[in-house]
Each structure stands twice: as structure tokens, then as C-alpha cells.
């Protein structure tokens, strides 16, 4: 309910207590609760202090929040309620090491753990403000469950979350019984005005599979030009689309009118391979091909703990991208010239493969920029990446919104879902969801049955 909170339970002002996970997800969270008050336990500031150094997004969020609090507090003490900047917002305060008189989380769950001190801060506010509803807001499910066990209201931070993710925009529509005459005309002319076609009203770019009995044609509706264009299934850089969705993805990737593309799908549907092949096909049109992915370690240790230089630390995380590049190179095994050209592109860094943190602060001009595993990004990270785009840059996000490795993100709150939902009506954007796995029958077995 932390989404520009409007309660239909009680119209009175509430107190929302934010934990560290919320701040690291969105440093501007304290400004998203309308007229309600926001409390920050002192332990949250202590944890943010540990996160303020570094180049990761969570380090940026920590630093930004600390600056925000410093500006908002001005010359005032923040152990008491302080007005937030906007007159439409409530107040905020930092809650010190308060111990509730009735229910003590540390006595129940154990002493010394930061989460339990945060619970006590919320419980103390509940005792001090019996006339207000106190709600702990956290992206940590376990912490929310502990709060509810203590009769403390708790909820997820929902700003940026997508509702009904199973109905998320897929980018294509299949129309049966479409005009046979128009199918023939589109096949002959390759492009027709949309006014001639009886299509459902669309506010943005969209792909269609148009059918009439045994006749079928794949098409792309360009909303800005009001045209319907035939989508071909030609190979690019020796990679041939194996289904209509892959052909749609290639069309979007090669289309000069489209500057922002997202491709969503299960493992093995060809997302990264198609993006990389399309980049190589257009290598002469861009200054550099930059492929990246967020580094999500499977342990709590940062990559700084790994041995070696920066490249040797990050290469294991980038190996899936190298595998795709190697697969493309294998398609030219009989063409020594092109095989050598691919090696040259890597050696001269015309193709650059590096972690996402390495692009912070850069302006991306005339770059074909592929962000793989984008489901592991927050909405703020996606916004930051797109804001880096300079002239003649094309940005592609690929990922599977149901395969998330980043703590506190899920299919509803990740940056890829956020992008698909919020950019779907923009004229520079196109999206396609890939459903059919093309890696192997064995891989399909895992996706379908296990």
C-alpha cells in the first residue's frame, strides 16, 4: 500500500516505518506516502552508512537518501517530527533505540539483530500513537511476517509494482478471419496504410499475426506512421528466426524508428542471441556494441572478494554473453574472414562486454546497448540507464521476469516489468514476449514440466 498511499480502511493519518530494503530500492520513498508520516529507525541509517561507498546502484540509493534527509532536516533535529518539503506531504523522524513496554521483539526473536530493533522501533511508535495506524513497510518477506506475528501491521513497498503481471503487455496479437484481400495486398506491397485494415484500436507500436484460413502473414503496426508493414523471417548474421515472435524481435531490433526495445521470455527463447546478432548486423551503424548485465552474486560477498583484476573478477558473470558470441562465431566456421572480423571487433572493443556498474556516469552516444538479465534491475536502475542514452543510441533490455536473483525484487517490482508496463504506448518503443524455447527439446522439458 506504499504506492502513493490512499487507504479506504481509515481516513486518519498513518505512520509508515521504513526499513533498509525500501530505501535501497527507492531513495525517494519517504516522499511517496501523501499526507501520512514516515519514520526511519536509527538502525536503517546505520545500515545505509555501510552501503554509501561503492559504484553499485544500492550504494547510489544509500547516498541519495542520506543527502535527501540532510536537505529536508535543514537546521532541525530529526529525533522529533520534521515537515517534509512539500505541503501535501506529512512529517518524518528518526526513531532512536526505543524499547516498547508491552511487546519486545528482541525478547521474543533474539537480541542483537538489526531487524528486531527495527521491529521494536515500530512497536514503540504503535504504543506512543494509539490513535494512529502504524505500518512497517519492508521488501523483506520474513521481516513482514515477524511483524504480523507481533500484531504489527506490515506491507510491501508497492510504488513501481505492476499489478496483474500475468496480463503484462506481450507486444503481439493474433487475428483470425482477417481480410484475405488485405493479406494478399500486404504480401504484394509489403506495406499498407492502417486505415485500410480493420485492426483493433492500438495506442502504440504493435505486432500482428494475421490469418485467414490457410493464409498467414506477420505484420508490424507503426503507430507514428499509421502503417502496417510485413515482417520477414530472413536470417541476420547467420541466425534465422524459428518462430513468428523471434521474427518480430528481429524486426524491432533492426527498425531505425525504434530506439528502445524489450524482449521478455523464458530461458532458451533466444533473447540475448537475437539481440547480439542484430547488433552485429548493424555494426557499421554504431560506434560501439555494448553488452552488459547486472552482477548478482550467489553469496553475500561482493565481487571485490574474488581474486584477480577487474576483468577476471567479472568474466564469470559475463560468460553467458560470451557463449552467445561464440555460438554466432561458430556459424562462420567456414568463413575465416568473418570469423577473424568478430575477433577483431572484440580486440578493438568495438564489441564491449562488461558489468553494468562500469557504465555509471557515461553518456552513451551512437551505441547499440544490450542489457541482459534486466529482470534483476530495479525500476530506478532502468530509468537511469535510459537517461544515459545520447544521440543515435539504441537500447535493448532482455530478461525473464519470473527468474529473478536480486533480493527484494519479484515479477511485479522488477525494472523489466516496470519498463514494459510504462513504456508500452511510447512511439520509440517496441516489445515482444517470446514463449517458445528454441534451445533444445530437453531445455523445453524443464520449462514446461518441472
From TrEMBL:
Family assignment from sequence similarity: Belongs to the PhoH family.
Protein name in UniProt: PhoH family protein
Origin: domain of life: Bacteria
CDD domains: PIN_VapC_PhoHL-ATPase
PIN domain mapped to chain residues: 14-145
GO molecular function per UniProt: ATP binding
Alphabetically ordered keywords of this record: ATP-binding, Nucleotide-binding
InterPro entries in alphabetical order: P-loop_NTPase (IPR027417), PhoH (IPR003714), PhoH2-like (IPR051451), PIN-like_dom_sf (IPR029060), PIN_dom (IPR002716)
Any GO CC annotation of this UniProt entry: cytosol
Pfam families given in the database record: PhoH, PIN_4
Amino acid at each position: 500500500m506504499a504506492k502513493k498511499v490512499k487507504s479506504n480502511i481509515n481516513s486518519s493519518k498513518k505512520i509508515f516505518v521504513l526499513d533498509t530494503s525500501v530505501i535501497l530500492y527507492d531513495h525517494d520513498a519517504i516522499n511517496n506516502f501523501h499526507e501520512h508520516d514516515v519514520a526511519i529507525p536509527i538502525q536503517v541509517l546505520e545500515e545505509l552508512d555501510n552501503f554509501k561507498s561503492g559504484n553499485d546502484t544500492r550504494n547510489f540509493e544509500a547516498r541519495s537518501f542520506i543527502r535527501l534527509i540532510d536537505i529536508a532536516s535543514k537546521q532541525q533535529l530529526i529525533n522529533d517530527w520534521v515537515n517534509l518539503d512539500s505541503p501535501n506531504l506529512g512529517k518524518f523522524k528518526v526513531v532512536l533505540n526505543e524499547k516498547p513496554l508491552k511487546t519486545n521483539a528482541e525478547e521474543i526473536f533474539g537480541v542483537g539483530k538489526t531487524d528486531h530493533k527495527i521491529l521494536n522501533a515500530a512497536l514503540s511508535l504503535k504504543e506512543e500513537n494509539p490513535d494512529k495506524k502504524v505500518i512497517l513497510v519492508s521488501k523483506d518477506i520474513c521481516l513482514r511476517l515477524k511483524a504480523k506475528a507481533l500484531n504489527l501491521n506490515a506491507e510491501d513497498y508497492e510504488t513501481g509494482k505492476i499489478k496483474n503481471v500475468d496480463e503484462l503487455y506481450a507486444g503481439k496479437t493474433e487475428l483470425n478471419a482477417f481480410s484475405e484481400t488485405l493479406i494478399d495486398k500486404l504480401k504484394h506491397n509489403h506495406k499498407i496504410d492502417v486505415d485500410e485494415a480493420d485492426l483493433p484500436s492500438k495506442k502504440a507500436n504493435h505486432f500482428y499475426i494475421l490469418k485467414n484460413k490457410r493464409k498467414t502473414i506477420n505484420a508490424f503496426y507503426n503507430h507514428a506512421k499509421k502503417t502496417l508493414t510485413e515482417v520477414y523471417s530472413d536470417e541476420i548474421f547467420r541466425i534465422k528466426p524459428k518462430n513468428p515472435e523471434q521474427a518480430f524481435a528481429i524486426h524491432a531490433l533492426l527498425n531505425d524508428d525504434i530506439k528502445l526495445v524489450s524482449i521478455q521470455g523464458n530461458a532458451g527463447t533466444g533473447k540475448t542471441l537475437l539481440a547480439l546478432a542484430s547488433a552485429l548486423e548493424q555494426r557499421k551503424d554504431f560506434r560501439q556494441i555494448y553488452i552488459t548485465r547486472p552482477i548478482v552474486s550467489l553469496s553475500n560477498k561482493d565481487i571485490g572478494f574474488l581474486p584477480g583484476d577487474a576483468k577476471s573478477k567479472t568474466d564469470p558473470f559475463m560468460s553467458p554473453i560470451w557463449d552467445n558470441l561464440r555460438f554466432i562465431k561458430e556459424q562462420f566456421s567456414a568463413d575465416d574472414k568473418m570469423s577473424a572480423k568478430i575477433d577483431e571487433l572484440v580486440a578493438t572493443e568495438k564489441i564491449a562486454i562488461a558489468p553494468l556498474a562500469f557504465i555509471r556516469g557515461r553518456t552513451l552516444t551512437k551505441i547499440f546497448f544490450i542489457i541482459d538479465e534486466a529482470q534483476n534491475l530495479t525500476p530506478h536502475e532502468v530509468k537511469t540507464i535510459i537517461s544515459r542514452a545520447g544521440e543515435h543510441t539504441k537500447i535493448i533490455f532482455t530478461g525473464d521476469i519470473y527468474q529473478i536473483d536480486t533480493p527484494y525484487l519479484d515479477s511485479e517490482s522488477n525494472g523489466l516489468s516496470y519498463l514494459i508496463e510504462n513504456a508500452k504506448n511510447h512511439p520509440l518503443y517496441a516489445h515482444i514476449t517470446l514463449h517458445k524455447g528454441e534451445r533444445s527439446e530437453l531445455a523445453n522439458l524443464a520449462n514446461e514440466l518441472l
